[in-house]
Amino acid sequence: MEQSVISSPPDRAGLRILIASSEVHPLVKTGGLADVAASLPAALRELGHDVRLIIPAYPRAVKQLATLEPVATLRPPGARATVQLLAGRHPDHAVPLYLVDAPEYFGREGNPYIDVSGRDWGDNPERFLLFCQVIAQIGLGVPALDWRPEIIHGNDWQTGLTPALLHDRPERPALVFTIHNLAYQGVFDRATFERLRLPPALWSLTGLEFHQRMSFIKGGIVFSDRVNTVSPTYAEEVKTPRFGCGLDGLLRQLGTRFQGILNGIDYRTWDPAADPLIPQRYGPETLELKAPNKRALQLEFGLPQTPRAIVFGYIGRLVEQKGVDLILAVLPRLLAHPDVQLVMQGSGDAQIEQAMLDASRAHPDQIGVHIGYDEDRAHRIEAGCDAFLMPSRFEPCGLNQMYSLRYGTVPIVHRTGGLADTVVNATPERLAEGTATGLLFDHSNADSLWHALRYGLRLYRDHPDQWRSLMQAGMRQDLSWEQSARRYVALYEGALAERRDISSVA
Q: 287-477: what fold?
């Protein structure tokens, strides 16, 4: 049965890669990790590699998969019950998928990390230790699968204990670990470490110990053969005290074992010329066809369908990291311009949510807000807006600015992380060359954001040819996954080469 569901085509002669993630679009998504976990395996498979994906068997993930077959029964040490490994395929492409079916751990509706009150599940350490244990078992070989990876690629703290569990096993695969956001580390107290019954040797400064607590993400960093984060600029930023969240010294020590690889975007999903989720498709040579999307978006958010209005958009978490408070701070100046409209979709801090709702009630002709997340609406916002706001205080990579570029929606972003790596600032020189794609501001404060917004308003109204140039240059930029996937292949090969060198010496 397993062979029919999960086998790779016989002509695949590339690397055998197991990518582990706690979420994947469209099965379960709380942020950009889910998009990456869906797109990178597909891009690697296109390059000829035998890549498989493993996630927890959340109920909503299981419900979306038409065919799932049990392929192995596992009993990780200390687990409260046996674990079924289910096999299927990703619904959007041919990538084989394993789901860790442990109902006592993962059989919960809603957000995979927090309960309905917004608090972390109290047994998150046990849940994701179990996930890591299963990943590790597959890495060492599960006979029923008739497949064993050469590389295990973990993502974020939920997979961080996998390298710690495998590091001293001579037969282990090469280990690669990606940090998507260093601010989320999976940090728990010493009592949790004891409760998990992890090897005592892991409690040390060279192991999981982090300021007298245990850190899942540190396990991924310390014990992997290669570590990366999701943009070159963020890779440099996290080696500084300002952005390193206490781990900057460790990351500096990694030297060439640590690098930044920019995320890509999946042009099969995010392409205005072929997007089935938007009212009117268009391309860089047919920008006039973007206008119906703008009218439809204004109607959807209850705003006047005014062609002259410039519509700004925001999609993301409503939290301080994303700079939403800066948007709130500039609203009086922004809304003083009667032809300005703002649409926002997201959720997060309750006070920020309420402030946005209050602002929309006070200015119903200029602000539309949707609390929550809807993927289809996100496509309509990208297609219908004129400009997109991303004033993040830090941004490891960011995907929405890349979606915006593809959709001819000019991004206005803080110069940090992946935002700095993907948006070319509209300086007079870059505008003259036709290479500018957006607007960047340098300081994380309201005045700096307002300066960029004011410049954007001026370009949009007084220099429509330059604004059109910004749109077209962004749409023609290649931010596809193919080139990013090739960089990951090089990372895997480096990890494998080091692993083989160590094995040969041993």
A: Rossmann fold (3.40.50)
What average pLDDT is seen over the chain? 94
Across the range 363-373, mean pLDDT stands at 96
pLDDT number for residue 8? 46
pLDDT at 212 exceeding the cut of 60: yes
Scanning the structure block, which residue is given the tokens 């600029």? Answer: 233
pLDDT of residue 504: 58
Give the model's confidence band at 11: pLDDT under 50 very low, under 70 low, under 90 confident, else very high: very low
CB 486 within 8 A of CB 493: no
Q: How far is residue 148 CA from its own chain's centroid?
A: 27
* Neighbouring residues of 495: CB distance < 8 A, sequence distance ≥ 6: 151, 174, 175, 176, 224, 225, 226
- Cα–Cα distance measured from residue 449 to residue 324, given in angstroms and rounded to the nearest whole number: 11
CATH number of 15-113+120-264+482-505: 3.40.50.2000
Span of 152-156, 162-166, 477-481 with lowest mean pLDDT: 477-481
Specify the pTM: 0.92
197 neighbors 78 (Cβ within 8 angstroms): yes
CA distance 228 to 155: 10
Burial 153-173 (b: 16+ CB within 10 A, else e): bbbbbbbbbbbbbbbeeeebb
Look at residues 383, 407, 172, 190 and name the one whose alpha carbon lies nearest to residue 278.
383
- Residue pair 160/129 in contact (Cβ under 8 Å)? The answer is no
Specify the pairing of strand 69-74 against strand 83-89.
antiparallel
Q: 13 falls in which pLDDT band (50, 70, 90)?
A: low
- In whole angstroms, give the CA distance from residue 73 to residue 467: 58
- Start-end ranges of CATH 3.40.50.2000 in the chain? 15-113+120-264+482-505, 287-477
- CA distances 35 to 31, 42, 94, Å, are 8, 11, 16
Residue 348 has pLDDT above 70, yes or no: yes
User: How many Cα atoms occupy the beta-carbon half-sphere of 417 within 13 Å?
Assistant: 29
CA distance 426 to 438: 6
Cβ(251)–Cβ(239) under 8 Å?
yes
Residue 56's closest CA among 101, 122, 25?
Answer: 101
Q: How far is CA 89 from the centre of its chain?
A: 21
- Arithmetic mean of pLDDT, 170-186: 96
